[in-house]
Write a structure and sequence with these properties.
The complex is a heterodimer of chains A (490) and B (515). Chain A folds into three domains: 295 residues, no CATH class; 114 residues, no CATH class; 59 residues, Arc Repressor Mutant, subunit A. Helices cover 41% and strands 20% of the residues of chain A. Chain A has 16 helices and 16 strands. Chain A is elongated. Chain B has 515 residues and is of the alpha/beta class. Chain B folds into two domains: 342 residues, Amidase signature (AS) enzymes (Alpha-Beta Complex); 95 residues, no CATH class. Chain B has 18 helices and eleven strands. In chain B, strands 1-3-2-4-6-5-10-11-9-7-8 form an eleven-stranded mixed sheet, sandwiched between helices. In chain B, β7, α9 and β8 form a beta-alpha-beta unit. The chains are: A alpha+beta (490), B alpha/beta (515). Chains A and B meet through loops of A and α10 of B.
Chain lengths: 490, 515
Amino acid sequence: MPHSYDLIVGLEVHVQLQTKSKLFCRCSTKFGGPPNTQTCPVCIGMPGSLPVMNREAFRLGLKTAIALNCEIPQFTKWDRKQYYYPDLPKGYQISQYDLPMSQNGWLEISDPKKEFAAKRIGIIRAHLEEDAGKSLHDEEHGKADTRIDLNRTGTPLLEIVSAPDMRSTKEARVYLTQLRLMLLYLGVSDCNMQEGSLRVDANVNIHIQGPSGKIATPIVEVKNLNSFRHVERALAYEAKRQYDVWEETGRTIKDYPKQTRGWDDAAGTTLPQREKEESADYRYFPDPDLVPVITPKAEVEEVRSGLVELPAAIRSRLEKTYGISDYDSDVIVLQGLPFVAYFEEVAKLSGDGKKASNWVTQELLRILNDQSITLEQFPLTAPQLANLVKLVAGGEIEITRAKEVFNDMVANRRDAAAAMSALGIAKVDSSELENICKELVAANPKIVADVKAGKQQAIGALLGQAKKRNPNANPNEVRRICLELIAKMP
Amino acid sequence: MLARSATDLLRDLSVRKLSSVELTQAYLDQIKLYDGQVKAFLHVDPAAALARAKEIDDRRAAGKPMGKLGGLPVAIKDVICTKGQKTTCGSKMLENFVPPYDATVVKRLKEADAVLIGKTNMDEFAMGGSTENSAFFKTTNPWDKSRVPGGSSGGAAACLAASMAPLSIGTDTGGSIRQPAAFCGVTGLKPTYGRVSRYGLVAFASSLDQIGPMAATAEDAALLLEVLAGHDPLDSTSANIPTPEYTKSLSQPFQGLKLGLVKEHFGPGLDPEVEAAVREAVKVYQSLGATVKDISLPHSKYGIATYYIIAPSEASSNLARYDGVHYGYRTDEKQMLAELAAERKSLEAKQDEKGLKNLDTALIRLYRKTRAEGFGPEVKRRIMLGTYALSAGYADKYYLQALKVRRLIRSDYDAAFQEVDFIIGPTAPNPPFKIGEKSGDPLAMYLEDLYTVTANLAGIAGISIPCGLTSGKTTGSPLPIGLQIQARPFDEDRLLRAAAMFQRGTDWHTKRPNL
């Protein structure tokens, strides 16, 4: 390619808030119920029904907005966004237009692999709105029937709109990962993408370094992104496609309107969406059925002071307190709050943060992944694991044997002492160890000669023999004693 | 018996001089006799009404506690949801719609032991001032059956005038309780916005709609409002303030009552007989000790323009849900699909690429045909007006501008109420007009609301009470004339007192037409 270019990405994330009931009625928000069983006159838009705001949903939105460093205006209101679709029974969606509940925030992103420098991604606004229902296209009977399930209608959504601050697919992915993690820590959403609790649309274009300055291509909104992986692939595809279109047509942002395209993951391409869906005039106006929401400064401060510790803060605290690497802190924090608590308990009780970190990020995570279980299902308590880490740290048990012990502890749900005794592991008395080493040195003059000649690695053969005489013999100790004995020999 | 006031009948009911069954039967008989000509009711279920009356009688006989309406029949405008009973809004769109829930006011009426006697006719979706816009039939004015009863609560007012119910529930978005009350010679109150819950009232213009009582007298209206009013957690716009006991304070006299006459209400377009009757009513108040002052509501001249931006804008949104998908009328799908296939075939034959590209999808055609067939012309006119006023590039010029004028209209009232207790004037500029007289001229029809819309825009309370009859020289038969009194927000108790004061000094409210 003759010209270099920058990728410019802004993301719109829709998050379902974890409330018991819907945004404007008391119906359950539970996922997966039989179609149209979680509905009432309000959420199905029966004539005469009226919405009443769910305070809990507003509070969850507030919590998130504050965690995203947003300004919280004292006055916010509800607007109707109007369009026709069968899964939108009122013919409008209650949303927020010109006075959203929050704006002008940011989320810091960083990459432990250091592919980009830590940076702040601006949050233009985060506003509340109600979800639509689901259209289930049933083409089985050859009639292309569409069925409507309104269980989801009215579920509270927070739409988080980022500034176009991301410059690579990697940054977009990290932003989404960090945002999702923060939402999970806040406990405002389960962020389950399969169930649609978190949905992403991407606004993307490229800035081409042209012969006479920067050229921006027309902005494209990419929809139907069902995983973070899709987002990365679609952005990479769009960048290349937009470059090719520019080369071919010379179209720029100045002479071509924003376009909506859908990601087809199987084909690995984006396709333009119908023109009619693009040129919608939503005829926003303030919803006369709802009253404006006033958020006093004191309430904002109350929510702020009640916020849980957020992932970024936890990462830097773990690094400082336990001396672990940013890579490890990232792995631990990514696993969620219970995992962080588990690690901290192991670290504190064992007195060795680094070793505790190694054990939880390697051995414990290996078990969780291999067995596809959650931390709650993991059989060992933090004190049990801490005990093992302490034995390793104190040199009571060497690492390979410790891993055997760990596997036994997990398999048989018992603590370190029981596992060790079952495996016949006991610390070898130092005089016994000394005797074994003496015998070995005496019996292996060839090895002694090799070592004396400077071939230190020859000692390895003695370690295996020691293990045969007593399986609990610590190889490091055997190596140290034998080397000492050999050194003393004439 | 049917000529007596609801308050009077209730007294007899409570001492068991009269049973609810007897009373309900009497009204049902009257309906049977005269509703063929008046056509006030869309649905009446005599068996259900009588069963309900009997149940109330039995409870009273057993000495059980009784609700405030203790067996009085009440008619309900067909724009208010009644569980398990058709609620059509006077529209083909909801011809067979049966709500799965009761409106809050219906719930309250039932709890107060009212007998729901029937659902009354109205202009489609409450859009109109003559009840000619009902998709089913036109209600006539019981005083002259060649004339309209007013609207949109035309059935609600006509059934009172024809003594087919003692109490009636109407709704008022721009005058729809007060103007038909004036045309039919009954009392109709539009409460302050937020006084009565709108939950279950099928929305026309949500920021203007208000449910209110209609009855023979202010005293009866007070009785009914006491049941209807009060905060409702299901309506975010309902005011969370206590409801006064309107019937208790009703007979308290006023000292030094100050009334305002709006200069702008006595301009061109006001019928001379209406003006004379209103001026006579002012004299009645003066004779009762009131002082009268000329005041100005300078922005009231923008009332109609403002109203006809805001109300249609909200209506265009509120009526979007009637699309044939979930409930209500749906176009004949088979026929619709066949038409679409034929159009496609003909376009293909002509190789009309552009035509094919612009051809509706089946879904869009379903919406189009359903709405084209299900709504009447006035409803369509307002949906188009509102859709235009809210369109991108126009919302600032129309809708947002109208909201600004609306605030100025409210400020005018606030200033006026610094000087006077109530504002009085004509309810409508003319007596009831002939059926068909204005139906070809929407603008003339909109001017019916000239004196009433500003109360809705400002959110204040207003009442219409009978204050005279035309001589019959120009109108053929004597026709009722209404006096409108407007009050500060949430000042219904004093407003009803002022109306009751007038009715103690006059007998216009006792006049009934010769059916």
